[in-house]
Write a structure and sequence with these properties.
single chain, 194 residues, mainly alpha
Amino acid sequence: MDDFIFYNQIGLNHVLDLKAYDHILFLIVLVVIFVFKDWKKILWMVTFFTIGHTLTLALSAYGVLKVKSDIVEFLIPLTIFLTAMVNVYFSRRLNNNNESRFNYFIAFFFGLIHGLGFSNYFKILIDKDESKLLPLIEFAFGIELAQIIIVFIVLLLGFVFQTIFKVNKRDWILIISSAVAGITIPMMAERFIW
């Protein structure tokens, strides 16, 4: 039980750590196009991200996959920026949530990349464990729980601004996605790999 709490807590902290806010930024731009009634789509999308994230952690933990960390550190803000730009570009059509199936693919694919960013540290953590599968599952559970917390906050803020302050959904998507894109530009510049 102690191991479950330990790895679960690491998963929670990995996402909710405000010093490493890239995960939060990605969740914001991934979910900003949705509202509470879309909770099933959102839950699937978050789960796809967790599966991608866990898959690369597993491949790294078992020594199957090795990627240079400087490449991954650049790709992480790039994935956030690209997701934000897709939201900005398609903001009029996103108003109808037509592109949500594409977001499942984005969530899974970018989950693969984001998992690589944590893989070296996680590999060190579980290197002493005989079974790597159980810690991976426990960590993934923490990731999933933390993502649901972030998603709830984003949806709640969207509800407040769109319902109480009467910000139209398209404007909400444009403002939030543009702000996140702006935050990631300096991140990409400082991590630029060539």
